[in-house]
Amino acid sequence: MANGFVAAAPPLKDELDIVIPTIRNLDFLEMWRPFLQPYHLIIVQDGDPSKTINVPSGFDYELYNRNDINKILGPRASCISFKDSACRCFGYMVSKKKYIFTIDDDCFVANDPTGKAVNALEQHIKNLLCPSTPLFFNTLYDPFREGADFVRGYPFSLREGVPTAISHGLWLNIPDYDAPTQLVKPLERNTRYVDTVLTIPKGTLFPMCGMNLAFDRDLIGPAMYFGLMGDGQPIGRYDDMWAGWCCKVICDHLGLGIKTGLPYIFHSKASNPFVNLRKEYKGIFWQEDIIPFFQNLTLPKEATTVQECYIYLSKQVKEKLSKLDPYFDKLAEAMVTWIEAWDELNPQGASKANGKA
Q: The CATH number of the domain where 217 resides is what?
């Protein structure tokens, strides 16, 4: 304290964990130090567990490698992907905090159009602590933002909004494209900074990207499973999208909201489109059946917790999607295993939503 001035404490400092999946040294954290150093990091090391991962000094963190995952989960460790960033969801499971922010190790601090560094975590927190409006679209986008409000004709009975479960951020520079789009637009870069946040309407799916994402673990954590991807699986790069589709139908059912837009991060490294195509190949075909599956899914009224919704969803995956490929039988079983492991590590985690159905 100097001259009577007391620095503001970082928001949600003791209620939020930052989850980072990685296979390399985390030098990228130096750029994020002003924003992330006050928070606790959960680092999930993918690949060779004998490799040493260096973390810059001054960060409070815990690091888990594959050996740790196997030791903690035992036989249930089979539900955590190997050699894929989907392993990050193990960090969600072992966290004991209410909120999670997850970021990739090739994501740097973005600058807004004025040149000011964007504190992505601060914006995610604002999004999560502010209601969502999935039941009626506000043409001024987020009505709770300073300088905005509900427009004429917006029903007063819906202006309270619903709790926000997920904040989905965006990216400057390298867009989050699939392999075919990467191949035809190899030099394309996203330079548009759209200064807005909006609620994704009820009944509308979206492709969730996991590299700049925050969520309320108490509200939606058990559904934030990134599936079976990577080593030994016929598909990759659909981990975050699978979680996004599952989360969206569950949020719609439980009366929760998802916001997208701000904050931006700077995505620095384009992955190899030919490698990506090999990972995505089956998914590109399968998604034409998967998306209608989610669009037509109705969760039972008796399902009032995230876990109950997710177990019902796993049964539907087995029943409706296994005809596409035996992989979906494995995925459905892994979804159940995930919930069992989640409940074992989080015995109080009922995650019953208090939103409006």
A: 3.90.550
